[in-house]
Each structure stands twice: as C-alpha cells, then as structure tokens.
Amino acid sequence: MSSPELLHGQGVVQNVFGDGTVTDAALTEAGTALAAESARFAGLGWMPGTAGNLSVTLARSPLRLAVTASGRDKGELRTQDIVLVDEQGEWVPDSESGGAIARLALASKPSAEAGLHARIAAVTGAGAVIHVHALAAVRAGAAWPGGIELRDLEMLKGIGHEAHDELVTIPVVQNHQDMRVLGDDFERVYVRATAEVREVPALVVANHGIYAWGSDLRHARWHLELTEALLQIALATR
Length: 238
Fold this sequence. Notes:
alpha+beta; seven-stranded mixed beta sheet; 9 strands; 34% helix; disordered N terminus; methylthioribulose 1-phosphate dehydratase activity; lyase; EC 4.2.1.109; MethylthioRu-1-P_deHdtase_MtnB; Aldolase_II/adducin_N
C-alpha cells in the first residue's frame, strides 16, 4: 500500500536526522509510494518500458529527493528501485546517507531527468514531481510551441484556476539533454504564485513529455491527469 504520508500529506517527509541524513523509514515509504504510482502510469501507457520518472521530496535543507532509478521497467518497480539525490539531481553516496543505501539495497543510478526534478522541487517547493510521456502533451507542445492557452474549461479548477474568464497558459520549452539547460528554461517560463497570480503546476517539454508537480504525490497525480485531459480537449476542439 502506498504511504499515506507521501500521498496525502504536505509533501515533505520530516524523518530527517540533524545532519540531513534521511531515515530508512522515509526512504522505504518513498520507494513504496513511487512504485505504486509508477505502476499506475505504466498502466495508462504514459510510462512505456523504462520511460518516465517520479520523485518525492524528503528534505529541504539540504535538498534530498527520492527519484525512480534509471533503466527499470516502470510497471514493475520495487520499493528499493529508488535513488537518493541532492539538489543537482546527483546520487548521494552511501557514505553520506548514513549507510541506508546498503541497508535497504537501494539503486545508485538516478533517471537522467533527476536534475530537472530537483530544480522544480527547489523552485516551486513541490513535494512530488511526475514526468511521463503522455501523447496529448507531446502533440500540444508541437501545435503550440510558444505555450498552450486554455480558457473556459471546467477542469481548470483542478489545477487551481478559474473555469471561466481566465486565460491559463501551460508553458512549453524545447527538449535538451542537459538538465541544467532545461532547468534554466523551466525557470524562465515558470510564473511564481502571488496574491494576484496562481501557479500553473505543469510544464510541457516539446517532442518529449510533460512534468507536473504538487504538494504530495496525490496532488501531483491530479495535476498531471487533469492537465493531460485539458490538452486532449484543446487538441480535439482547435
């Protein structure tokens, strides 16, 4: 069963030692929850084979994320198929994890996009980030490379916006193999929430896929599924 704290809590697991080391319990909860969510999206056809990746934020200072391991079938992940990464998306070695990697037999090779997960978590304060290869997102990114404008759609409420009389733009950036470049492009198009402006919790990477985030895995999932549905509607009615 997926961890209720990671799926339904405030996103950040507070099981952290004073030196920043994440506890075994937090890593186990993260691995269980990420495996369950990965299977869900693999079943939808959004994470074929080894494609796509998910992460949860485990600590803020220093930033630590559990991200799905590279090269693993996303429909068959086990609890230990996660990697502990830092603010750059780089593997945190066992010597800096308090021995948790060896004790829990965790993976040591993160998904290639872990760096962008870390950047999104750092910039937005997200407790979870999901990246999948959903078809509507790819098609919409190709159709509207400057950003996907949505208006007067009921499901906009599900991503924190008005159903009517508000123009909502899902940002689009070009794909790049360097996560630092993609991270910079994400920050360029990301609009921080203010008293007057609401966040758009999704990013389309052209010819690649979509990222969505939220305070925890459940909210990240909602934002992903709702955004993909909105993009399907936009494509069907253009």
